[in-house]
Design a protein that fits this description.
It contains ten helices and no strands. It is mainly α and 215 residues long.
């Protein structure tokens, strides 16, 4: 085996371990997940996992980092694919679609991210909170751009609006059924709710004809 092949094998094994760990952390939680259990699933010796990760905490940190970066990169790629000069609403819709599809594509990592923060070790939780703050800043900026271009009212609370939108998208694995509609359709519906509201449009009643006052 050449050095390049050995490096590729190491990378593949590391990514496999992170994927299996993400699923375990997401379904079992941090405390119940063991390094031996992940090694068994990967088909390697229990001691071999420590060649890639020195501890369970380091493995969890790598899972959280890799998941966050992959999801964010997928989101940004959708926005970057827009034609030059795309407006704030186009960028927002593309970003939502990118985030939506990333939540499905990186499902195991999404599960891991969905665990209670209180369950994470202190150092991992602190880094995760910093990553989440950066993610929130990005989306707050997208919403501010919408307001600047006249798509959001001036009195809308940006932070609350962000929570409303992102909490729907990030819980996609609990409710999305691809047999009932495509991601594109879901994003169109969500944007319609956001930009147009949910109240029925007011229909003007026809004016009554004035009664004849003379025969």
């Amino acid at each position: 085996m050449t050095k390049r092949q050995a490096n590729a094998t190491t990378v593949d094994t590391r990514e496999k371990l992170m994927r299996l760990a993400a699923r375990a952390f997401g379904t079992q939680g941090y405390a119940a997940t063991t390094m031996r259990g992940i090694a068994d699933q990967a088909g390697i010796e229990a001691a071999s996992i420590y060649y890639h990760f020195s501890s369970k905490e380091e493995l969890l940190d790598a899972v959280m980092e890799h998941g966050a970066q992959s999801i964010f990169a997928h989101t940004q790629a959708r926005i970057a694919a827009l034609p030059p000069g795309a407006g704030a609403e186009q960028r927002f819709r593309a970003g939502l679609l990118g985030l939506f599809s990333a939540m499905i594509k990186y499902g195991d990592y999404t599960l891991a991210h969905g665990r209670q923060l209180a369950e994470l070790p202190d150092k991992v939780r602190e880094r995760h909170l910093r990553r989440r703050a950066q993610h929130q800043t990005f989306w707050s900026g997208m919403l501010e751009d919408l307001r600047t271009e006249g798509h959001l009212r001036e009195d809308i609370d940006i932070a609350l609006c962000r929570v409303f939108v992102l909490s729907t998208i990030t819980s996609v694995q609990t409710w999305f059924n691809p047999k009932k509609g495509s991601p594109e359709k879901v994003i169109d519906e969500l944007c319609a709710i956001l930009f147009e509201g949910v109240r029925p449009r007011q229909v003007r009643k026809p004016a009554r004809r004035a009664q004849a006052v003379a025969s």
